[in-house]
Write a structure and sequence with these properties.
single chain, mainly alpha, 3 helices
Length: 73
């Protein structure tokens, strides 16, 4: 019975991780074709795709604020 809970826990973690990666992926500035390829990898191989996106995906913010007013504290 404990193994059942373990598999459910791992499945929930995989789904949450995939949702986070897909959100990050589709908000990136990559081309549509690149996004489609990454999406396929993440959906077909959840842990491998997420790890690959974590290593090879974009980092940080690519563009700063659009106006000087926006960045005032």
């Amino acid at each position: 019975m404990q193994f059942t809970y373990l598999w459910i826990f791992l499945a929930v973690i995989a789904v949450l991780l995939d949702l986070w990666v897909l959100n990050s992926l589709w908000r990136s500035e990559n081309s549509s074709g690149s996004k489609a390829g990454w999406t396929a990898l993440v959906v077909l191989l959840p842990f491998v795709g997420a790890a690959a996106w974590g290593i090879a995906g974009p980092r940080g913010v690519t563009k700063g604020p659009s106006s000087a007013e926006h960045s005032k504290g």
